[in-house]
Amino acid sequence: MAVYVESGSIVSALGFSVEEVFTRVWQGQSGLACDVEGPYSAEPVMLSKVDANRLEEATEKVAPAFVGSRFEKMLLVALQQALQNSAVRLSDPATLLIFSSTKGNIDLLDASDPASLELNLWHSARLVANHFNAANAPLIISNACISGVAAMVAAQRMLLSGAYRHAVVVGADVLSRFIVSGFQSFKSLSPERCRPFDARRDGLNLGEAAAAMVLSVDKPKGQKEGICLLGGAMHNDANHISGPSRTGEGLLAAIRNTVGLETVDFISAHGTATPYNDNMEAVAISRAGLAHVPVNSLKSFFGHTLGAAGLIESMVSLEALKRNVVVGTLGYEQHGVSEAINVAAVNFERPLQTVLKLASGFGGSNAAVLFKKESL
Amino acid sequence: MKTLRKVHTAKETVSVDGNVVFRYEGEDGFAGFARALYRDRAMAYPKFYKMSDMCKLGFLTAEVLLQDHKLPADPGRTAIVLACRSASLQADSLYQESMAEIPSPALFVYTLPNIVTGELCIRHKIQGEELMWIQEDYNEPFLRSYADLLLQGGTVDCCLCGWIDFAPDGEYLASLNLLEREVL
Fold first, then answer.
1. CA–CA min distance A255, chain B (Å)
2. Are residues A236 and A208 located together in one domain of the fold?
3. Which domain holds residue B35?
């Protein structure tokens, strides 16, 4: 039995569909811009924001009666889009629904009591699941920045166990004063557009986005080629709660237990552009024997979108896999990590069969997931 | 899959497999309970004092759960599968208060529900799979079945599995199972 990627969607600063977003990414456009208006920060800050009017219009179009927060609307629009190109229905008892987010409606904490129900992720998930008449109670993963990758891996496992035939995975996080000030307090934000793996990299940028992926054990119909989610793994560094391991221990284990005997043609790194993260990843990639494999980071296009990152970056990478292209890493000019990994600086064409997606996050978390093209 | 031990922490009381092993009778609520249990166990782990209440709750419960137990020699072969209802909302509101003056990185780091998992991994040298689920109510059968998938899958031999919740109103409950793959 195999797990196929049926369809997917993206809601981001670079557009509201995989097609639109990929075209912009391929043209080298970034969703990051210097935000001086607030309300997220008193000082100017580089952010990748989802256009508020466009989100309202998109929600109005698909769900005029829906009452929900910005976070919930992003989830709803992403789900709606992913499902409209798919035969999978959430109302089918054979369909599992998994949400991924780090902070959900935390932007509402500015104006609410901490005990308000709307601050809970399960509250948002239930609201959105009810809109789609979901047959199964939604599951939620909140595992910092690996949430999206972890949700795909968990979905694949549960599909292979035979408990469900289809799974819809959706991830989102929205910008907030809370998150922006937190990363500012950590001094991890770059004042400019971030530069993953570059010698001058000095921090990350934050972004907001939603992305969804529809998975099924049924072979896609009417296509010569499909994409399988082969599997993945998560491993903890057991080293530090907010800093990555210098030896890349956890990520290395996640890569090894994901890749097995498969050949990796391309790596979509976490690549936040903080000095420590990128170096840790380079060490893990190199130790895994993958230093020759082209690797990119998409953080300079979307910013770090937290619980959406794994999904949005996977969707872009799957589009690249279909088109046999590697997207260059915007902002990468001069190699700036200790290992001689093969960072893709510019776009290029190359026959691809597999893509490895990586993620790491606070709490010492690391995750990897592998996708492969299959002839049908 | 077999359950080696089950530890339950609530209302300033800790029980192991249904038997009360520690009870705090003082007046200082969770803070007093946590301090007393930490001392009772003669722990020397200064990082404990920096932790959020959710982390302290999970940390202490896991101390009792893993007392005198030897985890698999390969740190990659123990997994942690947890769930909670309130995520890190209690820590979130403390950080939110600090934003009015100087946002505190020491508080911000605890504003994720999976930090407790990270703390347990560091303390007990666990490097296997870890996952934090959010559930409206504790769905123990689901967590156990997910843990069983991992154990059956053969990538881990042992799993800490259960619930660690610290609500913004101060209500708390931890219930952890120590699970092991059945060797047939």
1. 13
2. no
3. 2-180
> Which chain B residue's Cα is nearest to A157?
B149
In chain A, residues with a C-beta closer than 8 Å to the C-beta of B127 are 235-238, 249-250, 253
Structurally, chain B folds into a number of domains equal to 1
Q: Can you give the residue range of the structural domain that contains A204?
A: 4-216
Q: How many H helices and E strands in chain B?
A: 6, 7
Kindly report the pTM of this predicted structure.
Answer: 0.98
Instruction: Please check whether residues A145 and A234 belong to one and the same domain.
Output: no
ipTM passes above 0.90: yes
State whether A101 and A202 are in the same domain: yes
From A102, A178, A235, residue closest to B128, measured CB to CB = A235
State the total domains in chain A.
2
Mutation site, A141, A142, A245, A306, interface B, largest B CB count within 10 A: A142
Query: Of the residues A182, A216, A250, which one is the last residue of a structural domain?
Result: A216
Cβ neighbours of residue A356 under 8 Å, at least 6 residues apart? A255, A258, A259, A264, A266, A267, A268, A290, A293, A368, A369, A370
CB contact under 8 A, B133 and A178: no
CB distance A35 to A45 below 8 Å: yes
The reply to whether residue A238 touches residue B128, judged by beta carbons under 8 angstroms, is no
Last residue of a domain, which of A216, A237, A266? A216
Residue A219 gets which letter from DSSP?
A: P
DSSP A234-282: EEE--S-SSS--TT-HHHHHHHHHHHTTPPP--EE------HHHHHHHH
Q: Give the gap in angstroms from C-alpha B20 to the nearest C-alpha of chain A.
A: 30
**Nearest chain A Cα distance for residue B24, angstroms:** 26
Facing residue for A363 by CB, picked from B112, B146, B149: B112
Instruction: Tell whether A168 and A212 lie within a shared domain.
Output: yes
Element (H, E) at A214: strand A209-216
Q: Considering the domain boundaries, does residue A224 fall inside one? A: no
Phi-psi region of A64 (alpha: psi -120 to 50; beta: other; left: phi over 0): alpha
| Segment A179-232, tens digit of pLDDT | 999 999 999 999 999 999 999 999 999 999 999 999 999 999 888 999 999 999
Tell me B18's DSSP state.
T
CB contact under 8 A, A241 and B130: no
Residues A205 and A75 in one domain: yes
* In-domain check, residue A18: yes
**Which pLDDT tens digit goes with each residue over B129-167?**
999 999 999 999 999 999 999 999 989 999 999 999 999
Q: Domain containing A293 — which CATH number?
A: 3.40.47.10
Q: Do B122 and A184 touch (CB under 8 A)?
A: no
CATH number of the domain bearing residue B108: 3.40.47.10
> Residues in chain B, how many?
184
Beta-carbon separation of B121 and A364 below 8 A: yes
> Quick check: B184 pLDDT over 70?
no
Same domain? A284 vs A336: yes
Whether A221 is covered by a domain: the verdict is no
